[in-house]
């Protein structure tokens, strides 16, 4: 169901016109917008990064491996899901992978950044795209899956976001989350990317459970490449930050291929129900359990 951001009415309709107060969200750059201009101040993501991501979001070893792992987790935990919302869809690399793997699934994406939505729209995936603040999601029990991949670390009140995800998720459905892990990996790269925090496993699991979800799977990712991440942090002391970041994204095809093989092996281990203990990223899969009194249960 849809939520009116003006009067909070929860309603079913093919349009966003509120039947109670008559409110209609604005259109911004051909997307329904639930964000006032003042809300842009809450966006900590550097818009210049979109231009970099757009050129490599399907070929770079980290992006492609992450998308592949997400597709696999969807198949393993939510095989009967028919709808998915990605919070902070950026250049739509994940939505593109989901479209290829599950063409019948109804896909939606949201981003606070207009720049991100422009890149997402250019891929013409047929997904519903919204300009939306993750702390105020205008849906209630609407999606079987909600994904937030490297999003929570950008938001001060991540607990509020998790509660919003819980409300917007269908009973029986759930969330897949990915965040940067290990506080001891904090570096100027995190500051450049607009991160508020890096997570510990206990911290993220606790926050997810406090939001009402039941955690089903927790694993680190980018584990075998952790020494390279540490080396990258050391290199920041020897060269300008911008140059170091560029070199981390724009690597030779041969090295990119080798690193992709390494992460493919990690994905293989995770697909065999192994939980990797350390790594640059942390993945959590959690479910919103159906309420016993709710007759309209969704088995995903």
UniProtKB/TrEMBL annotation:
What name does this protein carry?
A: SAM-dependent methyltransferase
UniProt keyword Transferase present: yes
- MF-aspect GO terms: methyltransferase activity
| Species | Herbaspirillum aquaticum
Which keywords appear in this protein's UniProt record, sorted alphabetically?
Methyltransferase, Transferase
Keyword Hydrolase present in the record's keywords: the answer is no
What biological-process terms (Gene Ontology) are attached?
Answer: methylation
Q: Which InterPro entries match?
A: SAM-dependent_MTases_sf
